[in-house]
């Protein structure tokens, strides 16, 4: 009987992508990857340290898996494993720079064959720990050469390194061969792909679309300074999803400068206008930090007004949290935590309204939806290429089906629709 491993990740898409890569490595090494922690001999958590909330969740997940399956060995890896070893109740802690050797480290350090192994229980539905079932990711690079003052990720992940183009093409080809319709390119700083190897993101995307085209190709977050006007020509190919995630962080120049971001609010607005002009129907989503050190009420007000003007399709709003080891953690004039939370709520409300307005524009249209899974209410849930969530009733098994769907009404956080026929 093979050893059974359960994997889950906390945090960003890159962590999910790496969890999937670890699952492949364990499978190649002869392990069974299971969907339920209680069934496993070994549980692996790919941790996150981007905010104090993510760090806490990482610690909690390791503890929770230990409670759920006290007989299993526990491994923690990822960003938090690089700084928080003492807070992780794991049998083995593997920092990011040793993650690629995780399977052999597990075999060298943990006596897995000494475990008292019970029979596998019933399989649960795919949860956070399961491999992404409809939109697999391909890691194109790791690390970042920037130094945003709030960010611990570039410290933990190190310098930018690109994956070889041939490996990326082979991985995309493999996902397409396995029947996936959408592939997501991910990394810490996707826009810097190829700077160390003489390649570039534009050429990589062209090569993927020419080589083994998935029906949809999505780019994860791109830093605004990486967008050049030539870049938009990529969207002449309709397979590239009409979705750009451009992290703004703040709409106030003084705060952007303290964050060491390389643009002004006006430059960001120009980029968004150019992108929207070049790509009709484009969804622009963003990240925002509320209550950065020194942020005054006026600066927050300026940022909120700017965010309102840009009418984002969606925004992830974080209340600033100090990450020890970053320059921002030592900056003067920290904002009181309750004020950070209140400002975050205000920004979320602005984003909620603009997101709703964006989605309302699709009511009455018929678009391809990539269906994922049924929710607890029995309705199917899927995504348009704009990353708009759609819900529908259907007796059919729609998992991983790309179907034309008539979008009928606005719902909280999404749209409802009626599946009409197979996508052409
Ligand atoms: S661009 Fe800034 S926020 Fe993003 S990983 Fe690099 S340093 Fe961190």
Walk me through this protein's architecture.
About 4% of the residues have low confidence. The chain is of the alpha/beta class. The chain is built from 10 helices and 18 strands. It folds into 3 domains: 111 residues, Response regulator (Rossmann fold); 224 residues, tm_1862 like domain (pyruvate-formate lyase- activating enzyme, Alpha-Beta Horseshoe); 57 residues, Beta Barrel (OB fold (Dihydrolipoamide Acetyltransferase, E2P)). The longest helix is centred in the C-terminal third of the chain and has 24 residues. It is globular, with a radius of gyration of 22 Å. Helix content is 30%, strand content 22%. It binds iron/sulfur cluster. The site of iron/sulfur cluster has 10 residues, from helix 4.
Strand content: 15-25%
| Tally of DSSP helical segments | 10
| C-alpha geometry | globular
Q: How many β-strand runs?
A: 18
SSE topology sketch:
Elements: E1 4-9, H1 13-28, E2 32-33, E3 42-47, H2 52-68, E4 73-78, E5 92-94, H3 102-109, E6 137-139, E7 141-142, H4 153-157, E8 161-162, H5 165-177, E9 182-186, H6 201-211, E10 216-219, E11 243-245, H7 253-259, H8 265-278, E12 283-290, H9 297-310, E13 314-319, H10 337-360, E14 366-374, E15 380-383, E16 389-392, E17 402-411, E18 414-422
Parallel strand pairs: 1-2, 1-3, 3-4, 4-5, 6-9, 9-10, 11-12, 12-13, 16-18
Antiparallel strand pairs: 7-8, 14-15, 14-17, 15-16, 17-18
Helix pairs in contact: 5-6, 9-10
The protein binds iron/sulfur cluster (SF4).
